[in-house]
Amino acid sequence: MTQSIFTSKTALPDLPDARGFDRSTPDEKADIWQQVLNHSVEGLVGLVAVRSGDSDQGAIVNFRYKFINQIALRDTFRRHPEQLHDITGRLLTDFFPSIRDTALFHTYVQVIETGKPQRVEQHYNVDHRDIWVIQSVAPFGQDGVMLSYSETSDLHQAARRLSRQTNLLNGVLNSSPHGIVVFETIRDGLGQLTGFHITLVNQMFELQTGRTSSYFVGLSLNDIYPIGPGRVEQLKRLLETGQPIHFDEFIPALGRWFNLTLTRLNDGFVATVQDITTEKQVQQQLEETVQELHRSNRNLEQFAYVASHDLQEPLRKIVAFGDVLNSQFASQMSEPASDLIRRMQRSAGRMRSLVQDLLTYARLSGSRDTFGLVDLNQLLASVMDDLEITIQERNTRVDIGMLPAVWGDAALLWQLFQNLMSNALKFQKPGQHLSGPLPHVRVQGRVATDTELPAGLSATDVSQSGRRYAIIEVIDNGIGFDERYLDRIFTIFQRLHGNLHFGGTGVGLAICKKVIDLHGGTITALSREGEGATFVLYLPMQ
Q1: CA distance 119 to 122
Q2: Burial code of 498-521, b = ≥16 C-beta within 10 A, e = fewer?
């Protein structure tokens, strides 16, 4: 649109020169005003009141366009841009028919009647788009108003985004299971650090301290927890290097332990506060338990010393005196008296064996310093050499296959297999070595697959560290046992068979279980009464 949008040059405002006198011609005024309208970044509209009747005092019933710039003109024809044309001289209701029923129309009237400008904000929904406009209404000329407006939709959208982000941030902060405190650095005029003050805390910190955020915001760090020069230097290094700080601290005022992580944030830091009082209490209880175990171990060592010296000495004397009675005074004793002495010696011998086995069990301990790669083939050969006489006496066939090397303590593993082989030789059917199938003991082994491992070993070692295990099986064709009692046979002093046919103290398999536990393995057994037993060992490999 190139034609002039003014109806009268006399209505133009005066443009005074520097001395206060207007020397512009009407054409110059029109040109200047045209430039103002065309280059304004806001919509500009001039309206003149239309009153009822011919009197200047009649009620304002409408407004007529006096001038309008291009921005306002485009907004007026937003929905029909092809109809855009000059509308000066037209009535306001020609383009906004229902405006007389709005508060905005009454605002125009009030400005004319009172002579006081007003500022209003409007909200529209055009083509499914929210539009916000701020409009200034000021008196203009004779019985008119000038409207200047600008769209603030982008500001409102930015404010809504900021509000959503703020709500999201607050949601994240307040959903944290740890307390969060944001500190900002306080500096003097020279930029030197003088302290820190709190700018934000989350709800968990409020719960931890029993105070609301309004109490903390603005407080300095020293107001809530005075710190020494050493910690101040740490905070300075944090701001310089950005390297986080982690430490545990007991807060006497709260009577609780906290784990704190300090992380740099702009020219300040964020403190993440985790209440670890329960963990500290558990740790303290654990340490006390460990100390109690140490005391128990010392008492056990003292008992072991007594068992190995003081208890065995009377037993040796009982056996020795019984031997003297049998050898030197046998002719002077009746048969019942000799029988009592023999029973006494057998009881003393069993007591002596029990004390020795108990001492062995009590002394079992494993240290990773003594662990190494153990060749089970050589170890079993040594065990068989030790049991050679028993094997010959019982006419037992022993077959040992190729066994994998395992990771452990050779001395403890020797005790393990010595007990297992002794049991396999001992628990045979009475007279089996004289008639019937010969006693037969087999030892075989292989590397276990993942599917063969017990659940405990598979969950801890295989999936996490890739450790392999060896399966070792000790198989005999002896008397066996009822698997209902499987949980009993590895318990100390538990025996499934009496002393009448099978000697022992009930400690051997308990020793086996303890050795396996010290190696981080597992032991179990398969059996049926009268059909032999298979002991299955899972031992770690390197």
Answers
A1: 10
A2: eeeebebbbbbbbbbbbbbebbbb
- Per-residue pLDDT of 193-202, as tens digits, reads 889 999 999 9
Q: pLDDT at position 366, please?
A: 59
pLDDT of 43 higher than 90: no
| pLDDT bucket at 75, cuts 50 / 70 / 90 | confident
Residue 265 DSSP code? -
Proportion of the chain in helix, strand, coil states, percent, rounded to 5:
45, 25, 30
> How many other CB atoms sit within 10 Å of the CB of residue 324?
11
Q: What is the mean pLDDT of residues 474-500?
A: 70
Phi, psi at residue 255, to the nearest 5°? 65, 30
Average pLDDT score, the chain: 81
How far apart (Å, rounded) are the C-alpha atoms in residues 256 and 210? 13
More confident residue, 364 or 443: 443
Is residue 520 a contact partner of residue 454, using CB atoms and an 8 Å limit? no
Contact 463, 513 (CB under 8 A): no
The full DSSP string for 61-93 is EEEEEEEE-HHHHHHHTSS-GGG----TTSBGG
Please say whether the beta carbons of 151 and 135 come within 8 A: no
Q: Is the CB of residue 462 less than 8 Å from the CB of residue 495? A: no
Query: What's the order of all strands across the beta sheet hosting 60-68?
Result: 60-68, 43-51, 144-151, 129-139, 118-126
Across residues 382-406, what is the average pLDDT?
90
* Mean pLDDT confidence for 411-416: 87
Contact by Cβ (8 Å): 139, 145:
yes
Indicate the angle between helix axes 508-518 and 410-426, nearest 10 degrees. Answer: 150
* b/e sequence 200-215, b meaning 16+ C-beta within 10 Å: bbbbbbbebbeeeeee
Q: Token match 């303290």: residue?
A: 284
